[in-house]
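Forwarding these from the shared drive since the link keeps breaking.
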Amino acid sequence: MADLLPSTAVAPLLPASYQGLDETTASYAHAGLHGAANTQRAYQSDLKQVITWLGTKHPGTPLLPMTPAVLADYAASLAESGKKLSTIHRRVAAINKAHELAGLLPPKDAMLAVVLKGINRKVGKTQRQAKAFTVARLKKTVASIDTSTLQGLRDRALLLIGFSGAFRRSELVALDLEHFELRDGALVVTLPRSKTNQEGNREEKALFYSPSPLTCPIRAFEAWRDKLNRTTGPVFVRLVGASKHSQPKLSERRLAGAAVNKLVQRYLDDTVNSRKPGDRSNRITAHSLRASFVTEAVRTGQNTKSIMNQTKHKSTAMVERYQRNNDVIADNAAQNIGL
């Protein structure tokens, strides 16, 4: 397993056909083949799941090379078990990447293509989406947070920055204080990398002052930054040492993505404590910060270009997918056609 997507030493990371490259060229080839560190970790985890499945469903069958029939069987089993379409796509990509790094051709034939197309159609129709919330709901929630505590200051900053910056949770937890700069009346956030920017091209988002100090993302950031009492390092960190008799203390360990998800649900998902185990339908998640920004921006008449300038979506189709304006009464052209 560790030999499929290793993470140290340049030379052994490349297929045999690359071994003749000098060290400098090999380092670039390695970056091109392996991708971002987060992607490598996701693929490692995915391949462990594949190996476990093979041991159960196809005992004695090696991971490499994998036949198209086995991959089709695996993809279908993921679909039947209720996995999201994005998860299925990533598992297939991990298998293909393992073949590529081993100098093998990925499994591919007409039958596999048909099965994957069918999965896209059937699973795609029932794809779960993060539920959106309104600005009014966010403002009410944020105004109720106890900002006399470290947790309250941190959580208020995360919610306001996450929403107004249309951030993904992976972007939020990766933010460093060095990424923030006050410029021309706005707080500009520079993203070294993101889900759609794996090449490290410079991307910027802007946060703006709000009339109310209680719901202003810039003031919330500054209040939290003052408590951090440093100028570099992670912005959203874990709090440790809490007990009945003492308040939590700051650490320098970043919040995990899962912790951001729980934080958003704790404040904004009224059903989080009443849902049945395994029920993930139409729920508030960390991704709701981003989806809600798009939805509210569309609802208030913002043009697509300005929305994409903040979300960094690469296509208008993705903006359409993210916005949740589907209230049959509130979001219906029939009420404004002039009758």
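-- next protein --
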Amino acid sequence: MNWMSRAVAASLATLTLLSSAAAVAQPKGEVRLLAYEGYADPAWVEEFEKKTGIAVKVTYVGGVDEQIAKMKASNGKDYDVVTIDTASLKAYADQKLIAPIDKSKLTSAGNLLPDFRGMANATFDGATYGVPWAWGSLGMVYDKKTFPTAPESWEVLWDPKYKGKVISLDDANNAINFSAIVLGIKDPFHLTDAQFAQVKDKLIALKRNLLTYFAGFDEGTTIWTENDVVLMFSMGELAAINLQKKGFDVGYAIPKEGAVGWLDNLTVSAGTPNPDAAYAWINFVLQKKIGADMAKKFGYGSTTDAPEGMDYASRLIWADNPEDYTRRQAIWNEVKAAE
């Protein structure tokens, strides 16, 4: 357990994901994915389709709020496999948008690193709803010309010196988590009424220093490239990688206050008409070679292949199910409406 923090290890319960040799009916047709960028690389899709004969249809989302809205619109019937972070899993399970995992169908589960073979936050009322697949952080992207050394504190985003040169992720839950972390609140996922008030005021103050909000990696990259932006509260490591590919000299940092650490899970939609195709995709992407390729191309940590260079896990505050997602969404709407 050399790169996972003890905090993560403590959240991992004993859940054996069985590698079953039992025969599974040959899936056919199509598998529809609802995913973030980097979770359905064209090379993987091509290999999967050739290997299985199953067509892959991908719908990308830019954030948690957009994702759950799409699932609720059809009660999950428009998708088969959905990639969901641990902090949102319970909301999906409570609304019966995702189905419990059939562990007997996880034929690639043995590829998971030991730290990820169980996940307490993915288990509710004795049923497990997600298979851990990718992890990372919601860190800071900064312009190296403006900041030759990485900023030490998140407070730089509030510095009037950079007014109009800061952009921030439009995500109700994680914006509140982020603000709570900057304020030094010990448990950013379970706030008191007084803490909610503090967080709201902090976020309104940040809004007044922003150029704008963004949703999704592509939008964040576009806004940065078309404007004089020097700081970003980002969706993760891929934000910096995308900008570097476009020739921008940016860095990625986890400031001294820490940052949200996320763990995304592969889940099966409760509305899928083709669960066999869903499990075929899940087992395919749980291959170690896919995990290694994902880390190399997109900067995500993999649950099947220990990543190099991601040595800041101990400084992450690992996402947990929030105390009241509906309340968080309402507060976030108030923040965005504030003058």
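DSSP finds eleven helices and 15 strands in the chain. Residues 1-25 have pLDDT under 50 and may be disordered.

- D.
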